[in-house]
């Protein structure tokens, strides 16, 4: 029994480490690979698995771009002073019941891609777009431009078409902290400060050796990251670029204003930090200012969905989930629905308590982050609210893809007087 408990603890620790992201104090570089060479996708994503797999379908991926499935990163990788490495995948679950996504580096043994901690098991039964992190031993990498990777999934799936989509692959190399040339941090904020609706952010000692400054916040907020974890450093990547963070400053003196109008009220502290990128591409995750709190003349509630259905694709059926609101709807002055989807042109209505908020918007066969205002606030209820989508009808007698509603589902923000 003791051995079993030890194994469980070890497994939890390993899974937690596998999903680790950079933290304040870390120094690293990010080498971004994008599937810009694919031919048949306007959205420029890599198909892994099934009849359109990039390794076998030349209409999707010309054979000259890979060798036995290995795709070149294409960057000069600097390993001097390196202490560890990891790969971040921009992953769309795509076809349900697709399992066994794995990553190989330079013909070494494949590493399994970990599932998100906040998605029910099995993750493959739920539509998702998230950013798993795979730890890679440094010994599998080489300095220079010769590094390559390969992606595979298991060949079995319920209807014989396993498939994940990949929008980008990021190789992240961590270095000894003393390699950083630009050591700086936030200026103008101190631990314990109260934040209003507009927060001015800047860094200490800005200088021209800085390429950009990305401002990040740790708080309980909208889960654009798709892993079901609402409290974290909020940002993700789309096609290798940061998205849904506080913002990025590209010009001296690298300051900006964070507008907190739709940041939910917090039970715990807020932290703010800066990712400082120097002119060589070295990134320094500066120390965070902690113990921050909101002080505004209004309240914001985040309605987190629950009872999220499996395989939420609108071609299959009408679907719904639930949101519980604690505030008094009579005092609501604005509200919004927020979610991420794939191929939202094939939506057929998004509803709150039976009232249509949106019919459809956005592209076909592509990712989208939605932020839709609820104009009729009288439909909101204290307690349980039903959020649903309609079933997509046939188009000219043919079934179309339908909109995928990605985990954690359709969230709601409500602003109260």
Descriptive keywords:
Jelly Rolls, Immunoglobulin-like, mainly beta, disordered N terminus, five-stranded antiparallel beta sheet, 417 residues, 13-stranded mixed beta sheet
Can you put this structure into words, describing what you see?
There is one protein chain. With about 425 residues, the chain is mainly beta. It has three domains: about 20-175, Jelly Rolls (Sandwich); about 180-295, Immunoglobulins (Immunoglobulin-like, Sandwich); about 300-415, Sandwich (Jelly Rolls), CATH 2.60.120.1200. It is built from one helix and 32 strands. The chain has one helix spanning about 1-20; strands spanning about 25-35, 45-50, 65, 70, 80-90, 100-105, 110, 130, 135, 150, 165-175, 185, 195, 200-205, 210-220, 230-235, 235-240, 240-245, 245-250, 255-260, 270-280, 285, 290-295, 300-305, 320-325, 330-340, 350, 355-360, 365-375, 385-390, 405, 410-415. Strands 1, 2, 5, 8, 9, 11, 13, 15, 16, 19, 21, 22 and 23 form a 13-stranded mixed β-sheet that branches. A five-stranded antiparallel β-sheet has the order 3-4-10-6-7, with no helix packed on it. Strands 24, 26, 29, 31 and 32 form a five-stranded antiparallel β-sheet that branches. A hairpin with a 2-residue loop joins strand 27 (about 350) and strand 28 (about 355-360). The N and C termini lie far apart (about 55 Å). The model is unreliable at about 1-20 (pLDDT under 50).
């Amino acid at each position: 029994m003791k051995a079993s408990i030890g194994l469980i603890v070890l497994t939890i620790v390993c899974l937690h480490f596998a999903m680790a992201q950079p933290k304040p104090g870390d120094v690293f570089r990010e080498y971004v690979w994008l599937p810009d060479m694919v031919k048949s996708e306007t959205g420029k994503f890599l198909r892994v698995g099934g009849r359109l797999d990039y390794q076998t379908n030349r209409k999707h991926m010309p054979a000259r771009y890979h060798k036995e499935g290995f795709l070149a990163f294409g960057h000069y990788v600097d390993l001097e002073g390196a202490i560890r490495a990891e790969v971040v995948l921009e992953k769309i679950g795509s076809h349900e019941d697709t399992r066994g996504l794995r990553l190989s580096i330079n013909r070494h043994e494949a590493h399994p891609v970990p599932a998100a901690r906040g998605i029910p098991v099995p993750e493959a039964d739920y539509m998702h777009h998230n950013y798993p992190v795979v730890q890679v031993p440094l010994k599998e990498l080489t300095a220079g431009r010769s590094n390559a990777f390969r992606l595979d999934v298991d060949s079995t799936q319920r209807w014989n078409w396993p498939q994940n989509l990949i929008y980008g692959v990021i190789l992240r190399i961590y270095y000894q902290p003393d390699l950083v040339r630009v050591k700086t941090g936030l200026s103008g904020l101190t631990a314990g400060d109260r934040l209003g609706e507009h927060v001015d952010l800047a860094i200490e000692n800005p200088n021209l050796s800085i390429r950009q400054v990305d401002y990040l916040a740790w708080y309980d907020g909208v889960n654009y990251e798709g892993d079901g974890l609402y409290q974290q450093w909020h940002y993700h990547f789309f096609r290798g670029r940061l998205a849904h963070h506080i913002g990025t400053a590209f010009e001296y003196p690298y300051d900006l204003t964070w507008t907190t109008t739709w940041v939910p009220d917090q039970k715990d502290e807020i932290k703010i930090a800066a990712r400082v990128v120097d002119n060589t591409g070295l990134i320094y995750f500066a120390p965070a200012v902690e113990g921050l709190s909101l002080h505004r003349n209004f309240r914001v509630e985040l309605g987190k969905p629950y009872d999220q259905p499996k395989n939420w694709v609108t071609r299959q059926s009408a679907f719904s989930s639930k949101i519980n609101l604690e505030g008094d709807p009579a005092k609501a002055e604005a509200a919004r629905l927020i979610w991420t989807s794939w191929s939202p042109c094939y939506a057929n209505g998004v509803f709150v308590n039976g009232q249509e908020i949106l019919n459809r918007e956005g592209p076909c066969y592509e990712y989208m982050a939605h932020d839709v205002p609820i104009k009729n606030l009288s439909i909101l209820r204290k307690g349980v609210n039903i959020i649903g989508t309609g079933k997509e009808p046939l188009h000219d007698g043919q079934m179309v893809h339908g909109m995928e509603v990605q985990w954690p589902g359709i969230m709601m923000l409500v602003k109260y007087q």
